[in-house]
Design goal:
Elements (H helix, E strand, L loop, with lengths): L3 E4 L1 H7 L6 H15 L7 E4 L8 E5 L2 E8 L4 E9 L6
Parallel strand pairs: 1-5
Antiparallel strand pairs: 2-3, 3-4, 4-5
Amino acid sequence: MEWLIKYSKESEKFINNENINRSIIKNLIIKTLLRLKGEKINLDLKKLKGKWEGFYRIRMGEIRVIVTIDFKNKIIFVYSIDFRGSVYK
């Protein structure tokens, strides 16, 4: 069973912004999938705490991607994508 990636409306809006390099976001998601499959990929993936319990943060430069990962059903839900100062609001 392949991994399924779902996006929130907010994250799709960020990806579709003409000022954003879409390849950066696609690269992050691909690296995340490779890491989840057990490959040794250099990726800044961190489990979040507090009100963000259950979420993971992927960092690439100034961009942060907030995701939930359903390991049993192999689903990554991209909750939010934004710049460092705005993503946690």
